[in-house]
Structure formats: structure tokens, C-alpha cells
Request: fold
Amino acid sequence: MNIYLDMVGCRLNQAEIEQMARQFRAQGHTIVSTAETAELVVVNTCSVTTEAASDSRQKIRQAARLGAKEIIVTGCWSTLQPEQAAQLPNVVQVIPNQRKDALVFSMNPREDPANVSETFDLEPISRQPIPGMRQRTRAFIKVQDGCDNACTFCITTVARGGARSRAAHEVIADINAALQGGAREIVLTGVHLGSWGQELNLHLRDLITLILNETNPARLRLSSIEPWDLDEGFFSLWADTRLCPHLHLPLQSGSTATLKRMLRKTSPDSFRVLVEAARKYIPSVAITTDVIAGFPGETSAEFEETLAFIQEIDFAGGHVFRYSARPGTPAARMRDQVPHDVRKERNHLLQAAFARLSATYRRKFLNERLPVLWEASATRSKNGWQIEGLTNNYIRVNAWAPELRWNQLDMVKLDSLTEDGMSGEISHQI
Reply:
């Protein structure tokens, strides 16, 4: 059967459709590049914001318009709104998050997932790029799902359920399969990554240590990790240079009062101490974050606290999310909802601040040599190929090369800033 996979949302959703592609191929199906050529379309949806929910619905309608006769919908939005999802054109099945891992096997119930998954771990075919999507040099590995936190703005906890960890041996097997398939960088991802192992009396540091001991990626990167899951000793893991010197620590607000309304388990003071510890252990670490603009009750003074705090911390960059009320969350019922025009203005000011901070961080590396993993190329010209990739500290770099260098590592001398990254000259291959 020809199957087209599509998604909206986070790296965890990306990891899940990569896993689906792997499983479908192992069952003999073909992953195709467009909905037009597919007999079946699977869409992994998102609901983190109203825009993400809208994009999810649009993906489904678009697949139907392109001729997909059978569409399976899964993910957070369809878990929260199964009736709406089922009413969209050509949707034949809605599979909630709780049954997502068995989606592929449900199409062939005679297969036993426990037995078949062992053979998947030996198949380099699992790392073939998903047609129609950007080729990836990084493999996103799901190590955890769900969340036990009660952040008042978050709908993901409702959609994904409680925190649960994948077994370490399954994670190791997935990583080895990705490496056999050619992946150079492994990215560990989850809804609440730092909670891995809590039900086993283990900590994420135990999983990372095991991965470093039993696998050999060129790079190991962590996706978003909550600051309260970490202590100073955690950063000693970065003595192993395969760990990428990049930490994404979601802050959400720099105001103590706002953080309390969000029910975040952190404070500006504890966040400041954690950042100081990270920088002590990891020289030149890139620390990035998330911030919500216009959370309910956010006064002008609280917003100014946030703006001042992100500049004090001197982040390497950050994502700004304009507050989006999600039905079913406590924040949506709070008084003093910030007017939309104020949210928009605060969003703009935060984005401008992060742009300045990002440029300041990148400027530190002018005329320095950093390793770059190439992941994309532009049209060839008389100068060769224009290629683009990421440093280990997550700076996007472009350079000219006489040949395609996709999925290769080079040392690059960084010579100038671009709008959102840097340009450089290849020094030598690694």
C-alpha cells in the first residue's frame, strides 16, 4: 500500500511519524511523497495553540482535496476533538494518543508488536528519509511521553496523559537502528523529557550515561527540558564532547507572580542559579528558552520583569508564543485576560529582544572554527553548492562547497552574521 505521512507540531510528533514510517516499511508498505499518490494518509495533529489546531485541520482537508480517499488522524488535536476530526472529509479512523504507538499494528492485527519491534531495531531501512519531507541528518528518538505537571496554560497534558518512560533498551535499540541507517546526530525528545525514569527510581542522567556508553553517535542533543528537573551535577555529563553544548530550558515568564499563576515549578532566582551552573560546566553553551506573551493577568510591570530577566540571563535565542487560550485549561477561565492587541505588542517586543540576544551570542564566534553538520543544500552555481547546517551549539551556518556535503561534518571558520545565523568557509573535513 502507498502511504503518505504528514504532521503538525513538535519534535515528538516528528519522532512518532519517523517511527511509523519505519514500521510501515517493515510491513512491506511504501511511503510516498504526496497525498495524491497515496492510498492511505496518516496525519499526526497538534493542539498546543489555536494556530496548531487550525493547521491540523487544514492538513487533513488538504489531503482530501488532493485525492486521498482514506485518512487516519491521530495526535493531540484529534485526541481532544475526536468528533470534529471524524467529521472531516475522507477521515476513516481517529486514533487517540493512548493508542498511537499501535497505529501501524492495528492495520495488521495478526502481527504481534512485541515480536515485530525486535526486527525493526535491526533494519537500516528505518532511517530512509520520509518522502516529501526535508531530509534529516538528525534522528528524533522518543524516550518519554505524557506529563504530570499542571501548568495552567497547557493542553498537552490533557491530550497526552500522565508521564511514562520508554524502556532504556528500547531507546538504545532505536538509536542503534538510526545510526545504522546513517544518522549522525541523535535528538532525545519527549513531552516532559526530564521526567524520564521517575517511575523506575532513575533519572535522565542515567539514560544519557547509558546511551553514551552503549552507542556512538557523532552528536547527542537534548530537546526541551524543564529547569526543575536538573541540578548542577547533571551538567558534568558534558565532559563527553558528543553531548551538544545547547540547552533549551523553557522559562515562560521572568516574573515571579506570573510563574505562580502558571503553576510553573521554577522561579527567576532558581532559574538564574541553574544557568550559572550550566555555564560553569559547559563553556560557550547556547541556552535558549520559551516565553509566553500576554498570559492572563500579566500586568505591564510583570511584562517588564520578563523583558529585563531574559536580557539579564543573556539567552542565545528563544521562541515567543502569544498566549492562546485552550479550552479545558485553568488559564482559559482566569480573569483579566490580556487584550489581543496587547499580546501582539508584547510578542513583538520579546521577539525583538531575542533577536538582539541571538546576534550578540553569535557574534562571539566570529573568526572561530566550529563543527557543522550539513543538512540542506541550495541550487548549484559557479561557486559550487550553497549548503546549510548546524553547529553543535545550534547556530545555523551556510557556506559554499565544491560538492554536496549532506550529512557530513566539517570544521567551518565563521566569518559573518546573517539574519538568523552565520556564514563561513569550510576549513577541513572531520
Summary: The radius of gyration is 22 Å.
